Amino acid sequence: MRKIMVTLKRVVDYNVRVRVKPDGSGMATEGLKMSVNPFDEIALEEALRLRERGEASEIVAVAIGGDECQQQLRTGLAMGADRAVLVKADSEVQPLAAAGILLEIAKKEKPDIVIMGKQAIDDDCNQTGQMLATLWDRPQATFASEVRLDGGTARVTREVDAGLETIEVELPAVITTDLRLNEPRYIKLPDIMKARSKPLETLAVGELGLPAVPSLKSVGYEPPAQREKGELVENVAALVGKLRERGLVT
Amino acid sequence: MSRILVVAEHDGVSLHSGAARVVSCGLAIGAESLDVAVMGQDCNAIARQAGSIAGVSRVLCLDREENARPLAAVQAPQLAALAQQGYSHLLGPSTTFGKDLMPRVAALLGVPQVSDIMSVESGRRFKRPIYAGNAVLTVEAPADHIVVATARLASWPAASEGSEAAIEAIAVDAELPAHSRWLELKTAETERPDLQSAGVVVSGGRALGSADNFSMLYSLADRMGAAVGASRAAVDAGYVSNDMQVGQTGKIIAPELYFAIGISGAIQHLTGIKDAGVIVAINKDPEAPIFEVADISLVGDLFSIVPELQAALEDS
Ligand SMILES: Cc1cc2nc3c(=O)[nH]c(=O)nc-3n(C[C@H](O)[C@H](O)[C@H](O)COP(=O)(O)OP(=O)(O)OC[C@H]3O[C@@H](n4cnc5c(N)ncnc54)[C@H](O)[C@@H]3O)c2cc1C
Ligand SMILES: Nc1ncnc2c1ncn2[C@@H]1O[C@H](COP(=O)(O)O)[C@@H](O)[C@H]1O
Fold first, then answer.
1. Under an 8 A CB cutoff, do A216 and B140 touch?
2. Closest CB from A162, A235, A242 relative to B243
3. CA of B262 to the centre of ligand 1 (A)
4. Cross-sheet strand order for the sheet of B278-283
5. What is the band of B88 on the pLDDT scale with cuts at 50, 70, 90?
6. Is any ligand 2 atom within 6 A of the Cβ of residue A79?
7. B107 at the A interface (CB within 8 A)?
8. Cα end-to-end span (Å), chain B
9. Which atom number of ligand 1 is nearest to the Cα of residue B234?
């Protein structure tokens, strides 16, 4: 039976507005509500549905980060993952390094499918899944809006700029999720209780013995250019007048 | 000085409009030479279009059967092999094509990727948006490594046309995997301009209420020669197809004129339209966040305003 690995990144909740620290040294994230990256929730939901349809038997959730990431792994366990692995890293882990770490976990866990979010809503990189697939020398199906398994292959419909593209990949493969793949379920209270007794294994990134990989240096953070608030018009005639004044419509 | 390689996106028939924008980004880096790689099958016409972009030194055509359709796993090894022929920078568009492909090349080359370059500070320093555009981060790529990056198209003007760069057919030595197969592409047929390059865009949100009601926006768009976009809520509700979504996870656009009709203005939507010239917002809720960024705001019911607007424009 198939085994699925999903990744759960801890990020500032998507409803919270994050600001740059006044000195430009980083983002002011202290005390903000943290959640599972929304695309990763979708990844886990897809894994759960595959298991419920009898197409997979085990789901392991993986996070890389500080101890506090246990919260997000517990959320994943409460949603329905069977086990969780936290790879402890105290400093920032960029996509190439994260992919290297996930490769080690994949080698150990030997999943048939890795489902990840297409992008983390903090760094907005959109890289890690593709990089893991490459290092693992396996196929990728990014931006998935539909996943169908058939024996040793997956047919994945992808949300691309031109519309919907379908590709077929041999398993094991990495799939990254787009928003319309599914709608994640809500967690019920008893499931939170049950999740407490599910296994959550912790290992230090150092134990993996990975070589350092080149990374980007963060030089400084700044707020984005603000658009100025414009003017209010009373009616359609005034709107059309303004647009004509600016030569925007004929 | 830098030797830059730009990977061109195309649909098998014509070059993607983003290519000329990625070239602009490359030229901003300060290019000693700037080559464009076209991967495809029978792609001479596309190569000629790429060669007409001002600033392009050479067009390198990787013409082979396996490139008939874009599969990142198949294209990445070819691009990685090519990039190692003395290039200092490898640039692609920040479209679904580039986002799929470029990290795969970066991983093969063992280097980090800079996603969504919005401005170039130096050959290794770039600005890029993070947190749905709530902040701009300056990053520096490591010295002594090739820079692999995607350019945020809305941040770059299209380089002009009219040159005629040399076109070279080349072959690279790369082992291509057989584990991925392209099956089909479903596109919503439309005669309207492309969302990513249109000068005017009319977008609708959840408030439109149905796919049928979107026809109001199509007529309005047709009157102005505009493309039609949508919020995520409108796409999720099935009013329009996914390729019309504007925002953090849809298309990032920079038209001269943008209409947000019945769209609340969530941060994830706004990040897609930050670079628009003039934003017009029509919303019945005077407190809607879209009004914080709109240049021209009209409070009211779209179901009466849109037909009125159509009539006012027809009158001239
Ligand atoms: C990870 C993530 C990524 C996302 N990415 C995107 C993205 O790329 N693009 C995107 O758009 N969203 C995105 N979203 C969703 C975003 O947060 C909002 O939910 C979405 O943009 C809301 O769409 P809307 O404005 O159409 O709907 P609503 O927020 O429901 O707004 C509808 C608006 O219409 C107005 N209205 C109602 N009736 C009328 C009427 N008769 N006349 C005039 N006005 C009326 C209301 O006042 C309201 O302001 C993302 C969310 C997440 C979590
Ligand atoms: N530190 C991390 N812990 C868990 N998953 C991660 C981590 N970093 C990246 N990922 C996964 O990679 C995806 C893409 O991230 P990114 O490339 O940073 O946009 C995310 O949606 C996660 O699924």
1. yes
2. A162
3. 8
4. A231-233, B296-299, B278-283, B257-261, B200-204, B227-230
5. very high
6. no
7. yes
8. 53
9. 26
CA atoms within 13 Å, Cβ hemisphere of A3: 11
Mean pLDDT of all residues in chain A?
A: 96
Read off the pLDDT of each residue in A81-89 and give the average, rounded to a whole number: 98
Distance of alpha carbon A111 from alpha carbon A50, whole angstroms: 14
Q: Where are the domains of chain A?
A: 3-224
Which tens digits make up the pLDDT trace of A176-235?
Answer: 999 999 999 999 999 999 999 999 999 999 999 999 999 999 999 999 998 888 999 999
A240 chain-B contacts, CB cut-off 8 A? 309, 312-313
Q: Choose, out of B74, B96, B147, B241, the residue to mutate when testing the contact with A (most A CBs < 10 Å).
A: B96
Domain covering A3-224, topology: Rossmann fold (3.40.50)
**What whole-number percentage of chain B has pLDDT above 90?**
94
Strand partners, A155: A148, A168
- Residue burial B230-253, b: 16+ Cβ < 10 Å; e: rest: bbbbbbebebbbbbbbbbbbbbbb
Domains and CATH numbers, chain B: 2-169 (3.40.50.620), 200-314 (3.40.50.1220)
**pLDDT over threshold 70, residue A83:** yes
| pTM, entire model | 0.96
| CB spacing of A218 vs B139 below 8 angstroms | yes
- Judged by average pLDDT, the poorest of A162-166, A226-230, B249-253 is A226-230
